[in-house]
Amino acid sequence: MIKVTLPDGAVKEYEKGTTPFQVAQSISEGLARNIISAKVNGQTVETTTPITTDANVTLFSFDNDEGKKAFWHSSAHILAQALEKLYPGIKLTIGPAIENGFYYDVDCGEHTIHEADFKKIEDKFLELAREKAEFKMREVSKADALAKYKKEGNEYKVELIENLNDGEITFCDHSDFTDLCRGGHIPNTGIVKAFKVMNVAGAYWRADQTKNQLVRVYGISFPKQKMLTDYLEVLEQAKQRDHRKLGKELELFTFSQKVGQGLPLWLPKGTALRDRLENFLKKAQLKAGYQPVMTPHIGHKDLYVTSGHWDKYGEDSFQPINTPHEGEEFLLKPMNCPHHCEIFNSSPRSYKDLPIRYAEFGTVYRYEQSGELHGLTRARCFTVDDAHIFCRPDQIVDEFKNVIDLVLYVFKTFEFTDYVAQISLRDPDNKEKYIGSDENWKKAEQAIIDTATEKGLNTVVETGEAAFYGPKLDFMVKDALGRSWQLGTIQVDYNLPERFELEYKGSDNESHRPVMIHRAPFGSMERFVAGLIENCAGKFP
RNA sequence: GCCGAUGUAGCUCAGAGGUAGAGCACUUCCUUGGUAAGGAAGAGGUCACGGGUUCAAUUCCCGUCAUUGGCUCCA
User: Fold this and answer.
1) Beta-carbon count within 10 A of A499 CB
2) For residue A294, what pLDDT is reported?
3) Domains identified in chain A, total number
4) Tens of pLDDT along A378-437?
5) Beta bridge partners of A185
6) DSSP assignment, residue A135?
7) Is residue A46 domain-resident?
8) For a designed S-S bond to A35, which of A24, A140, A180, A405 qualifies (C-beta 3.0 to 4.6 A apart)?
9) Domain that holds residue A25
């Protein structure tokens, strides 16, 4: 006999080899009907996997996130099977469950999949689902697994398997279909009653632009037809909140092909809204000890060579503007910080002067790839509610906390409740993408982690998301369609002060290097207005 | 930038190889006891742009531009 502990703490005894399904049955038939996945000692398993030791067991239905994951993951298998039948010779790669549904990436070779084919795929999918084929896991040796996919000429699966260890490789079979798979399925295909292809898109193998582009088929599935209808309805309503739609209807902003793509034109009503936002923040900043400054829209190329922006982004920027006679090179400013560093440098500073906080609603211009432009959330010209705090090392924590408070004040005022504070760190395996010493990075990252923790923020850590000069604390907000955007951002920077040779005289009469905090509570006026529109569906507070 | 889709009246969209339509909005008039009322008339489009095929293209083909869903990128 084995002891099974359920989430409510109840302990029950079962025969060794009892399955999660049988555990559910012993509780109630209704539960057994609905359970589609389970976790045994923290590991996701099938409902038919025998439990062989004492275990903590959690049962999942479609109503749990875990249940949905199993459901959609299993649906991805069916989708792959359908695609293989409809397009013989395609190569399967990966097909995970995602937040809303799932996708499968396939290499179609010469073929492409068009929207006109969706119906065909959906029909085939449902036909296969109705077979009620069981999902069955089996272990495979690395050699056998490699042999199968080498024979099929599927270099993608071969690559995946080569990165796995012998003994931990499993296949999942259902009906006549087999896929490399870690497990976590619903009992059989028949549970999937509704399915829709949402979209096809290109996606690079391993998210690498230099590798093959695959065809990604996005789908969503449900155990009931009604759930699909409801889901589509919700999506349709979400589209009504799109800031691009509302911005046009409310006459807030517009775009003109003649002016250029990604360059927003603010209409009178939009300008009025934006002014009010700026005034709101200006007031809060004056109170918090910021000093307004103004800087030009262009800067000498050398400024950005010094800051490192030229090296990092020069090729992907609007190209230099040349003077007609002297042969000088200027750049449209992509950042305000170099200008602010030079303001700091304009006179000698004492430790008594710090912290110095320069604030500017600074308009910047960045070349964004055409495929990236997106209403106000991703534009080529935008205004950052920027400020740079120059402080002593012993002042960082306090300053950082104050900035967090300011950001939270802004979010609270505009009723942004659904945000995540993302701690964006350097990718330790790709240090060449960043400037500055390990020591400086360590200090800066630690300062952010400590303060965010102390403030009790709901944080997630993302490595590789830092700016090239320092780590960030980014306040991420979702748009109407569930896409995440960075609004507020706070960054600790030891590197630009070094590059600009910023100094202050300490109480010891020696020269010291200040630390910079970059911060923008709105992020940018454009993106914030977009967020505000979608957050309140155009009904401004 | 890459893969897919789209581009027709101010807005939402239909349409077909023979030189364009609907609803809403707009203008004028009429009806009606005032809050998304009804009726009549009217205005509004080189059907994104540039090539090609054709007797004929807005409709088919190619290219460009823009928009859009993803991917990649995002100081």
Assistant:
1) 17
2) 98
3) 3
4) 999 999 999 999 999 999 999 999 999 999 999 999 999 999 999 999 999 999 999 999
5) none
6) P
7) yes
8) A24
9) 2-61
